Amino acid sequence: MPEKPPNKQTEFGYFDDEHKEYVIIDPKTPYPWINYLGNDGFYSLISNTTGGYTFYKDAKFRRLTRYRYNNVPVDSGGKYFYIREGGCVWSPGWKPAQAPLDQYQCRHGLGYSRFLSSKRQVHCDLTCFVPLGTRAEVQRLRLSNRTEAPKKLQLYSLLEWCLWNAEDDMTNFQRNFSTGEVEVDGSHIYHKTEYRERRDHYAFYSVNSEIQGFDTDREAFLGLYNGFEAPEAVTRGRAGNSIAHGWSPIASHFLEFELGPGETKEWIFVLGYVENPAGEKWTADGGLNKTRALQMAADFDSGEKVTRALAALADYWQNLLDAYQISGPDTRLNRMVNIWNQYQCMVTFNFSRSASFFESGIGRGMGFRDSNQDLLGVVHMIPERARERILDIAATQFEDGSAYHQYQPLTKRGNAAIGKNFNDDPLWLIQSTLAYIKETGDFDILEESVPFDNDPAKANSLFAHLTASFDHVVNNLGPHGLPLIGRADWNDCLNLNCFSQDPNESFQTTENRAGEVAESVMIAGMFIAFGRDYVALCRHRGHTEEAERAERHLQAMATAIDRHGWDGDWFLRAYDAAGKPIGSHANRQGRIFIEPQGFCIMAGVGLDDGRARTALDSVNKLLAYEHGIVLNYPAYTQYHPEYGEISTYPQGYKENGGVFCHSNPWIMIAETLVGNGDRAFDYYTRLAPAFREKHAALHKTEPYVYAQMIAGKEAATPGQAKNSWLTGTAAWNYYAVTQFILGVRPTFDGLLIDPCIPAAMKGFQITRKFRGATYEISVANPAGVSRGVQQMWVDGTAVAGNLLPVFAPRSYHRVEVLLG
Ligand code: BGC
Ligand code: NOJ
After folding, report:
1. Pairing between strand 264-275 and 406-407?
2. Whose CA is closest to atom 4 on ligand 1?
3. Residue 8 banded pLDDT, cuts 50, 70, 90
4. Which of 7, 106, 334, 575 is the most exposed place for a label (fewest CB within 10 A)?
5. Residue 762, CB-side half-sphere exposure with 13 Å CA sphere
6. Is the CB of 714 under 6 A from ligand 1?
7. Is 454 left (phi over 0), alpha (psi -120 to 50) or beta?
8. In which residue ranges of the chain is CATH 2.70.98.40 found?
9. Helix or strand or coil: residue 756?
10. Is the pLDDT of residue 7 over 60?
11. Burial of 651 from C-beta contacts in 10 A (0-12 / 13-18 / 19+)
């Protein structure tokens, strides 16, 4: 084993900050704790017992390996190895063989997972990763004999091919049991189902050494009545050399060898995906064209090549993370900001809400609002990809500003089956575009010509798209002058026009009422919060008239909130289709909701007259508890057709009184706006995984990434998390902590320094790369305040105010900040 575990650890694992890894020391975690491999198209999900699956670009249409959802035992199926010594069979990740291991570690790192385990003094070191720019997962497996005597060993690999379309693969057995085709050529096993007809792609699984056998038919390898834990071939000690004809094709290599005393042997397995252009599908004699596969396998056929690829991957991540690094008084804060929160933001950006252990990868496309918000967490790391994403998203907007709720990543076209009318959607485009411009200074993006409704004939500038977003609200106001909610706003489960009595109906797509009455105070807050930025942009570009027009609408909206959106101690949530208030003292349940408190205060409403503080005190009193801030209180205990899906959840879960983590940073930011750094940080620590590590058993999901939901105070299981990894929580928490709590905030004209921290925090240092220059910022808080920059020095010279200018690319500047 490498490093011995540090003292501070839970029973399941610990953070290794130096290697940027989370180290799991017990394979039986409270739930599978997973990692993601791949950065740009080729992806694998991998659990701490090597469960999971692989796909290329689209988790539904290009699924390479099979996974069974909601399986028993949990997380069965993956890319597995069996090591056999005499009658003893074990697996490097404990599963599937499940023989007790003498040692076990799973080290989830940035883009790779490493498994270190041993049994009978045979040590295994398995590293799985997707090399940069490669359509393959590489697995380096080393075995060492740590005894004085030679050992005879066998090694079996195993993966199960998915017949490409993950949904069809799970349902269309009458066809699929007859279509499967494979080919074995030396150590290369090819999966070529449907290649003979319309597919121009195949997959392969290779190892860089001779093999002593193989299997490609699942039944031949496992036995019809066995699970993965005890395959017949492994028990027998010999591969079947089977060729699959239909049924369920797999790939298994069989290796037999001797390890001398102290000897280490290494193998490299490559699971790859190949696309051949139409004219190059076949060789002259009509065979599968394997050239690209052989080249890919050759790219990683030696230890040196793999070591180099791993080093390149580490550099790639270091370079991304370097854009924002803090060295502060709390290691948990440091590891969240420097490593895990940024990492999760990248994964969420890549996967949207498609493939996790809670999202099946066959259901959802890219969400319009989700993808816009995900950008908040990555614009500083990958501005070029953010730019491309913004233009893709904008192209799914309609001319009236409304937007497809989702689009498909392979085609980038709006998803007509879901349609539109989620009336918050258009506004998020303003926020993401502005975040991108503030980070990069790339105002030119506004001139890009972008289609409406994916129709090139209907193209206009991106700026025109932002105007359309703004006007979509202006043109869709309800009886109180507040925005009509449509099918739902950010809260997908507040379906005020649905009135569904049919259990087979989707709350997301059904609208049974005209929708001319129900209004959202949350959208009102969003409109002002993002609309103010829109106005600033117009002024920056000299569009004075447009700025003034927009300002008049913002003013009118502020008045509407004052008159109809304030409930006495907090902001009201909405008006239902009968014009009755939701989130009001007048309600028995659902009296107060989190969303409008966050958004109205971020919009600046109530900051000057005390209402913001009153609302935040109400949040603190009624919504906040040990494990976060719940979405609404009291939770609904019965189904309300007039509210929709929100009232379908048992109390305390999901949108009905759960801590819907995505919304908590809105309150953190609001607290910073009223100067309450202690509360903002306190809320931050209730959710941030590294701070919750101590609750690992209760929390259940990974202690290194945010989950979408933590059960609320009225739930039967308060504090228990679900839906980890793919959630807007990642981006919003990152945005809140880096820009509002630590307070290093990009603006059009430079970096604003405006921390709002706990009074007891003595200071911190941040290295920020911004528009090509490096800012080495050191914040001191000797007077113990929460907020307020007393003096700033740049390169030793006192400067006025707290805005750092844009410096020349590649220049380096030392900034000292005195709070007081
Ligand atoms: C969930 C929401 C989710 C929506 C997406 C609902 O069942 O509660 O969180 O956004 O489905 O379709
Ligand atoms: C999850 C969805 O992905 C997101 O779009 C929505 O805002 C939240 N659920 C809240 O309902």
Report:
1. unpaired
2. 492
3. low
4. 7
5. 3
6. no
7. left
8. 31-318
9. strand
10. no
11. buried
DSSP 565: S
Q: Say which DSSP state 398 is in.
A: -
CATH class of the domain defined by 31-318: mainly beta
The count of other CB atoms within 10 Å of the CB of residue 574 is: 30
3-state SS class at 296: helix
Distance from C-alpha of 221 to C-alpha of 746, rounded to nearest angstrom: 57
| Tokens linked to 372 | 């816009």
Point out which residues pair with 35 in neighbouring strands: 46
DSSP-derived letter for residue 626 is T
Which residues lie closer than 8 Å to 629 by C-beta, 6 or more apart? 594, 619, 623, 659, 663, 664, 667, 683, 686
Question: 634: which 2 tokens?
Answer: 């009291």
d(CA 236, CA 470): 68
What percentage of residues in the chain have a pLDDT greater than 70? 99
Annotate 200-235 with DSSP letters as a single string: -EEEEEEESS--SEEEEEHHHHH-TT--TTS-HHHH
> Which of 425, 492, 533, 567 is an active site residue?
492
Alpha carbon separation from 303 to 31, 108, 192, 309, 317 (Å, rounded): 33, 21, 29, 10, 21
286 pLDDT higher than 60: yes
261 CB neighbour count, 10 Å cutoff: 11
With vertex at residue 168, the alpha carbon angle to CA 163 and CA 172, rounded to the nearest 5 degrees, is 100
Tell me: the pLDDT tens digits for 374-429? 999 999 999 999 999 999 999 999 999 999 999 988 788 999 989 999 999 999 99
The token pair at 443 is 């105002």
> What pLDDT, on the 0 to 100 scale, is given for residue 409?
80
Q: Could you give the CA distance from residue 495 to residue 682 in angstroms, rounded to a whole number?
A: 32
Is residue 159 a contact partner of residue 251, using CB atoms and an 8 Å limit? yes
Q: Which ligand has an atom closest to residue 644 CA?
A: 1
**Euclidean distance between CA atoms 206 and 187, whole angstroms:** 6
| Ligand 2: centre distance to CA 660 (Å) | 9
C-alpha distance from residue 487 to each of 320, 473, 775 (Å): 38, 14, 45
Nearest ligand, CA of residue 491? 2
Binning pLDDT at 50, 70 and 90, where does residue 6 land? low
Q: What is the pLDDT of residues 204-220, one digit of tens each?
A: 999 999 999 999 999 99
3-state SS string for 241-254: CECCECCCEEEEEE
Active site residue 168: no
166 Cα to the center of ligand 2, angstroms: 24
**At a CB cut-off of 8 Å and minimum separation 6, what does 562 contact?**
605
| Six-digit token string for 493 | 């489960």
User: Of the residues 352, 492, 630, 643, which should be mutated to test ligand 2's pocket, given the most ligand atoms within 8 Å of the CB?
Assistant: 492
Q: Is 655 in the pocket of ligand 1 (CB under 6 A)?
A: yes
The first and second tokens of residue 291, run together, are 């050239």
Token pair in block for residue 367: 């969400």
Evaluate whether 611 touches 568 at the Cβ level (below 8 Å).
Answer: no
Confidence band for 3, pLDDT divided at 50, 70 and 90: very low
Token pair recorded at residue 448? 């890009």
**CA 81 to centroid of ligand 2, rounded, Å:** 38
DSSP class of residue 375 equals: G
| Nearest-5° Cα angle at 95, 91 to 98 | 80
Domain range 745-819, CATH class: mainly beta
CA distance 460 to 442: 18
- Give which of 491, 732, 733, 717 is closest to 590, Cα–Cα: 491
List every span in the chain annotated with CATH 2.60.420.10. 745-819
User: Is pTM, for the whole model, over 0.90?
Assistant: yes
